Amino acid sequence: MKKNFVLLPLLMLSLVGYAQEVKDIDSSAIFLLDKMASVIGDLESVSFNLNNSTDELDANKNIKKRFSTSNISFSGSDKLSVRTEGTKGKKGYSYDGSFLSYYNFDENNYVTLEAPQSTLKMIDQMNLDYNFNFPAADFFYPSFTDDMLEQFTSIKYLGKQYIDGEECYHIMATNTELNVQLWISNETNFLPKHFVIIYKNKSNLQFESSFSNWSLNPNIPDSTFDFMPPPNAKLISILKKS
User: Looking at the domain assignment, is residue 77 inside a domain?
Assistant: First the structure.
């Protein structure tokens, strides 16, 4: 699956006016980002777990935290499996190279959609058409470092920190709207360990994720990515975004 992923709108911003701003870029931070992207880009298959925490505002403008855990597997350039369970329920995505199936475990319903024949194009198209978001896809985009350089005015290496007993390199990227902090493990092939996104213009709401249980180049049977509707599951329809 080398070089076959897409950056989701998690980090997408308007670039208007960026050319007039002075960039403050740390070469050590860029080296670490390039190293991480190179390791991920060379993978033929991978599986990992992701723990997410998302801030939301309630009707009284109080911050509520939503939690979820995802099990994610990629294989080749055209296979993806995602299982997510959390505050908002349990759901799954299965992509076999031709079709993407979304299944809601709590409601026992599903939809199967014809999809482009690569993971990159599928993720991009499904996000555009149906607002489907695929956890951690950002890190598998081949031009991850270039996109960071384009979208952020400051990227700094802040030194080493320990997270869950692992020595990590700490990087912070900022612009007028976002503060993004990333910890890259020095003990597991420069893979991402943890990241935080702080939305400056949205009451400093945060999105936070932790990676664990990385399995690099595992042999994943193709049947893992095939979707078979459970008994009595209801086929539903879904409309594209207007």
Answer: yes
